[in-house]
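C-alpha cells in:
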C-alpha cells in the first residue's frame, strides 16, 4: 500500500495553502463570525433598551489634558464654573416635562437636587485652615463619583490644621454623558494641577498628603509612580488609599468593543453598560463603557509602572502608604491590592487595613469561603514586608469587633478591641462603603435632619423584577460601620507627623 507524498492533496483538490495556514484562516473566519454575531446582538439589545435622555447625550466638553496642564488650579476652577453654567443651560433647553421627576437630580427642587445640600459638592473645593496650616492634603474621588465622597476625610484633615484640596475629575459632577468622552489623561492632568497647588501652598515647609478613593486611589498612585519613572522625587510625604483600584475585571479591558455599534446613531445606547434613573445628587447611576475602558487603562499603566520600578529597585522612593480595603469587593480585585502593590513595597513603613466579612454563626455558612481565603492567608501565612490589620470578629458566637495587627516581618498578632459589634444585618463591607460614616447625610443609615433623601437608610422589601433599578444596587452597603476606626487611624498619623515636624524644627542645625 502506498501513501501520498507530503504536501500532496489527493482526489484532485487544489492545495492552495499550507495546512497550518489553512487552519489559521479557518480560525480567523470563525472568530470573525462570532465577533459579528456579538456586535449584532449588542446592536439589537441597544435598539430595544431604555432610550437615552438629555443628560446622557449632552457633551459637557472639558479642557484637554494639555490645556489643563498649561493652566493652574485657579484656571481649572474658573473653567469648571463656566462648564456647570453651560451644562445647566443646555439641560434646560433640552429637557421636556416628561423628564421632570421628584427623584431626578436634574429637576430643579427635586428631592435629589444637589442644591438640597448646603453646597454643590459636585464641584472642586478647598477647605482652608482656620489656624496657621500644618500641612496640605489633596483628596481624589472615584469613577462616576464627585468630590462629595471625599468631604468627610477632607473635613478630618482640615480639623487637624491641613488645607484640604479636593479636585473634581473631568467628566464628573455634571452629566453622565460627559464620561463618554473623558479620558484618563485628563484625570491625570487634574491630579497634577491639584498637586502643584498643594506644593505651592506647602512651600517646602509643610507635609503634603495624597489621598485617593477607588479610581482616585489608582490615579494618586499613578501620579507618584510616573514621577519616579521620570527620575523626579515623590511630591507627597504620605498616601492614604481607600478601596484602591489596582486591578479591575477583564470586562473593563475590552469594554470599548461593546460600544462599537454606537458609531451608528441608531445604536447609540450600546455605548452604555447601564442607563438608570439619576436619583443620586453626587454620583452617576448610568455608566458608559468608555469609562470602564479608561479606568482599565489607568490600572494597566499603574501595574506596568510598579513592575518597572520594582525591577529597577526604585520603589523605595514611594511615600509611605496606609490603605483600607474590604476583603470582598465586586468592583476591584481586592487581593491585587496586596499582590500587585504592597508586596512590591519593600520598605517597612506601609500598612494594609482589611475589613473582614461578618463571620457569625448564621452568616458565615452562607458565604463563599474562596472569596476570603487570600486575606486569611495574609494574616496567618508567611510574613510580609508590610503590616496587615484585619478588622472583624474572631468568634462565631461573639459579635465584638476587634482589629488584629500583624507587623511587618512578624508572626505574632496584636489585638485591639474596638468597643463595637459587627452589625448583625451586615454580612460584609462593599467597595463603595469605605469613605462614608453611618451618619452621612446621603449614604448613612442614621437619619439626619433636613435631608429627605438618605440612600443608606433605604430598606426595601417586595417582589422581584418590579423596580426600574437593580435591587442589588439598593441593597449594597453604602456606609462603613468601622468609619470611626478608620478616621482614628488617619488622625493618629497626623498627630505623629505633627510631633515629628515640631521635633525637627526644635532641633538646632549643626
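Residues out:
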Amino acid at each position: 500500500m502506498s501513501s501520498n507524498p507530503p504536501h500532496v492533496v489527493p482526489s484532485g483538490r487544489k492545495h492552495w495553502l499550507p495546512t497550518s495556514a489553512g487552519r489559521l484562516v479557518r480560525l480567523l473566519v470563525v472568530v470573525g463570525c462570532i465577533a459579528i454575531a456579538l456586535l449584532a446582538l449588542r446592536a439589537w439589545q441597544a435598539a430595544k433598551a431604555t432610550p437615552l435622555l438629555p443628560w446622557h447625550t449632552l457633551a459637557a466638553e472639558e479642557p484637554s489634558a494639555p490645556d489643563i496642564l498649561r493652566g493652574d488650579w485657579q484656571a481649572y476652577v474658573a473653567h469648571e464654573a463656566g462648564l456647570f453654567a453651560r451644562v445647566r443651560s443646555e439641560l434646560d433647553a433640552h429637557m421636556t416635562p416628561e423628564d421632570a421627576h421628584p427623584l431626578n437630580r436634574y429637576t430643579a427642587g427635586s428631592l435629589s437636587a444637589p442644591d438640597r445640600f448646603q453646597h454643590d459638592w459636585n464641584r472642586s473645593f478647598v477647605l482652608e485652615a482656620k489656624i496657621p496650616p500644618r500641612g496640605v492634603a489633596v483628596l481624589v474621588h472615584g469613577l462616576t463619583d464627585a468630590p462629595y465622597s471625599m468631604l468627610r476625610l477632607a473635613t478630618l484633615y482640615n480639623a487637624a490644621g491641613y488645607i484640604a484640596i479636593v479636585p473634581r475629575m473631568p467628566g464628573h459632577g455634571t452629566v453622565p454623558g460627559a464620561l463618554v468622552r473623558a479620558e484618563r489623561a485628563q484625570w491625570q492632568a487634574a491630579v497634577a494641577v491639584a498637586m502643584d497647588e498643594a506644593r505651592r501652598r506647602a512651600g517646602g515647609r509643610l507635609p503634603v498628603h495624597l489621598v485617593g478613593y477607588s479610581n482616585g486611589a489608582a490615579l494618586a498612585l499613578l501620579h507618584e509612580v510616573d514621577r519616579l519613572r521620570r527620575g523626579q522625587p515623590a511630591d507627597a510625604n504620605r498616601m492614604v488609599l481607600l478601596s484602591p483600584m489596582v486591578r479591575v475585571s477583564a470586562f473593563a479591558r475590552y469594554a470599548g468593543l461593546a460600544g462599537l455599534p454606537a458609531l451608528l446613531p441608531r445604536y447609540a445606547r450600546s455605548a452604555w453598560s447601564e442607563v438608570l434613573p439619576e436619583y443620586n445628587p453626587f454620583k452617576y447611576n448610568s455608566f458608559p463603557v468608555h469609562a470602564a475602558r479608561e479606568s482599565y487603562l489607568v490600572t494597566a499603566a499603574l501595574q506596568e509602572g510598579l513592575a518597572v520600578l520594582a525591577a529597577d529597585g526604585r520603589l523605595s522612593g514611594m511615600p509611605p502608604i496606609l490603605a483600607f480595603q474590604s476583603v470582598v469587593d465586586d468592583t476591584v480585585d481586592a487581593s491585587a491590592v496586596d499582590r500587585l502593590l504592597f508586596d512590591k513595597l519593600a520598605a517597612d513603613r506601609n500598612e494594609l487595613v482589611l475589613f473582614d466579612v461578618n463571620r457569625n454563626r448564621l452568616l458565615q455558612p452562607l458565604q463563599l469561603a474562596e472569596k476570603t481565603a487570600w486575606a486569611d492567608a495574609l494574616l496567618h501565612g508567611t510574613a510580609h514586608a508590610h503590616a496587615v490589620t484585619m478588622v472583624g470578629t474572631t468568634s462565631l458566637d461573639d459579635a465584638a469587633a476587634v482589629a488584629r495587627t500583624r507587623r511587618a516581618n512578624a508572626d505574632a498578632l496584636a489585638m485591639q478591641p474596638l468597643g463595637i459589634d459587627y452589625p448583625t444585618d451586615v454580612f460584609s463591607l462593599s467597595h463603595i462603603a469605605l469613605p462614608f460614616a453611618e451618619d452621612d447625610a446621603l449614604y448613612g443609615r442614621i437619619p439626619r435632619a433636613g435631608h429627605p433623601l438618605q440612600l443608606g437608610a433605604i430598606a426595601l422589601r417586595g417582589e422581584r423584577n418590579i423596580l426600574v433599578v437593580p435591587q442589588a444596587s439598593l441593597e449594597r452597603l453604602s456606609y462603613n460601620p468601622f468609619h470611626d476606626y478608620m478616621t482614628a487611624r488617619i488622625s493618629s498619623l497626623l498627630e505623629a507627623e505633627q510631633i515629628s515636624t515640631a521635633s525637627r524644627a526644635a532641633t538646632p542645625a549643626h
